[in-house]
Amino acid sequence: MRSQTPQNPVADRRCPPTVDQIIANKKIRAELNVAFSVSGHRTDNPLEHGGWIYQSLRTGRLDFIRAGDERAASGRIDLRNPPSLPGAIVVADYHTHPYTENAATNSLREGFNNMRPSQQDEDVAFKVGVPDIVVYESGSGNGASAIVASGVGPNRRGGAPDRAGAPADGFPGNSVDNRGCR
Amino acid sequence: MKICFYLLCVPLLLANCGGLGTIEQTASPQSTGTPCKEAVTKETAILIARGDAVDNYKLSDYNITVEDQPDAWRVVFKLKDPGMVGGGPDYLIDKKTGKILKAAYYK
Fold first, then answer.
1. pTM
2. CATH top-level class for B2-105?
3. Which tens digit of pLDDT belongs to each residue from A81-95?
4. For the stretch B28-49, what's the b/e string if a residue is b when 16 or more beta carbons lie within 10 angstroms of its beta carbon?
5. pLDDT digit string (tens) for B26-67?
6. Size of interface A-B (CB pairs under 8 A)
7. Which residue of A has its CA nearest to B82?
8. A169 to B85: CB separation less than 8 angstroms, yes or no
9. How many CB atoms lie within 10 A of CB A46?
């Protein structure tokens, strides 16, 4: 997987990691690859997969829990009410954007470059108060196909409380303000 | 099975106005015997869009809205549940031919 972000370690335990730091984490990056590989991309049965990324309050380490298949569907995934991980908080969620082969190769379409995150992906991420990391194939039209990950919503947990809703569905919403983090 | 339904249905609907492949070749409305202002109705445009979307989306999760533009129908699929992450396709369909002019596959 090609990361669109610099390879910075998660250094500051006082602040939740940024999207760049999360994607740079080896364990998380491996999981993003695995989640995409089980999503049925370029098959007749693409299903979005995803889950939640946690940070240990004690060690600062990142971990993840993959959502069960019952939350997945073609075109959407339900990531509300993340399971709790003792001693850790949710710092992001993630999901994949798999497509059928036909959607990529049909000349009427704009190719995978058009397969960007939806407005609803971004709206939900801002509302719940944590970034949403989206994994998808990009660049198939120009021969430089790669699996990439990028974030939508706030840059870190609590990074945009002014755009968040009330705490709900297991997410912090506007109850956390990390705008002072650098 | 679902694809077969759309493949059968759409040509039949278009046939009421001369058929999908013959619209542009018809010299005058009289030659078809079925005068039509728009070969592709709003309902047909929805069927065309659903037929294209069915492989990549669970259609029962979506509301469909149609915008009437001068030469095309814009057919937009929006998730019924605003709490889900995801998205739907957005089509521009030619009113005369039923051809998909543009498709954006938001997820």
1. 0.81
2. alpha beta
3. 999 999 999 999 999
4. eeeebeeeeeebbbeebbbbbb
5. 333 444 445 556 689 999 999 999 999 998 899 999 999 999
6. 100
7. A120
8. no
9. 25
